[in-house]
Amino acid sequence: MTTEITVQDLDTQQFIDKQVEEIKSQVGDGQAINALSGGVDSSVVTMIGHRALGDRLRTIFVENGLMREGEPEHVVDLFAGLGVKVELVDARDEFFAALDGITDPEEKREGITQTFYKDVFGRLVRESGARHLLQGTILTDVDETVAGIKRQHNVFEQLGIDPEKAFGYKIIEPLIQLRKDGVRKVGEAVGLPEELFNRIAFPGPALAARVVGAVTRERIDLVRKATTIVERLLKDTNAFQYMAILHEDRVTGMRDGKRDFGLQIEVRCWDSVDARTASPTRLPFDMLEKLAEEIIRGVPGVVSVTYNIATKPPSTIDVV
Ligand code: XMP
Q1: Which of 55, 223, 249, 315 has the CA that lies 20 to 30 A from 241?
Q2: Ligand 1 touching residue 241 (CB < 6 A)
Q3: C-alpha angle with apex 180: 19 to 70, nearest 5 degrees?
């Protein structure tokens, strides 16, 4: 059982020092690999890991083809400014091959997990001689996986999976006792810029968590375009998380006076403290209209835009 450290009980300096010592003692004088996705959690782990290991930590950003517009380059630049070199590994073909023909949400998650941990990181670790992988699993990821709500891509031990046997390396999870609010506080204390520690949450399975049904390059491209619009329009709302979802069902619409059996995009915008429960943000109707107009103009084939008004539970924040 992992003991939770609540944001109220969190002493950030003490927490960082303890995690730095822990990483040093586990890795010894070896090398470790760090999985950076550019999300809040892995960004915080990157800073703590570099404080502990310096050049003995290789930070890798896996370009899985499922990221937001311009994200790989943006993350590399941001960390370069913090003195952290990030290596980009292009694994797009592997991820799309693993997702080919899969529509079930849990099978998608499993495909992504195996590609990440077994194929991509398995290979990188073997080639580098490292024995450890650092990653940003947090307590909410564990809770939802253990409760059987969603198999989060980064949870193993709590499911009885030994990463060393399954993938050939040990996993170190410095943030496992924290929730998102605590992670942000540690991020600020460890020197991340606000753009990173206050970044909206983004799931490990990336845009694949926002496509209902088949995940193809074309469908990811559509949801990516809608995501860019939603993130631009909602960035000043102070909401916990906001996103665009591409649905599988088509609906009848009209274009140029003719029937158009078109695509549906759902917009979600959540108020939440720690992602365990959430409620839809009461966006002004003018904003909803603006979202619809821009999505219909900017995403080819869309004839319907909806706004989610259900709470979590019974919804979850992302749809896959
Ligand atoms: P849900 O959709 O389960 O999400 O309500 C709760 C929070 O977790 C994020 N999320 C993930 N994060 N790996 C992650 O690291 C995952 O597999 C994953 N799935 C969902 C989600 O974006 C939300 O902030």
Answers
A1: 249
A2: yes
A3: 100
Token code pair at residue 315? 């919804």
Nearest CA to ligand 1 atom 22: 203
DSSP state letters, 132-153: EEE----HHHHHHHHTTS---T
> Which H, E and C letters describe 89-128, residue by residue?
EECHHHHHHHHCCCCCHHHHHHHHHHHHHHHHHHHHHHHH
Supply 121's token pair: 């990181």
Q: For 94-126, what is each residue's pLDDT tens digit?
A: 999 999 999 999 999 999 999 999 999 999 998
Tokens coding 178:
């924290």
249 by Cβ neighbours in 10 Å (0-12 / 13-18 / 19+) ranks as exposed
275 lines ligand 1 (CB under 6 A): yes
Closest C-alpha to ligand 1, atom 6: 275
Got the DSSP string for 31-55? -EEEE--SSHHHHHHHHHHHHHHGG
Q: Which of 113, 143, 144 to mutate to test the pocket of ligand 1 (most atoms within 8 A of CB)?
A: 144
260: its two tokens: 């158009």
Per DSSP (E only), the strands in 72-139 are 86-90, 132-134
Q: Report the mean per-residue pLDDT for the chain.
A: 96
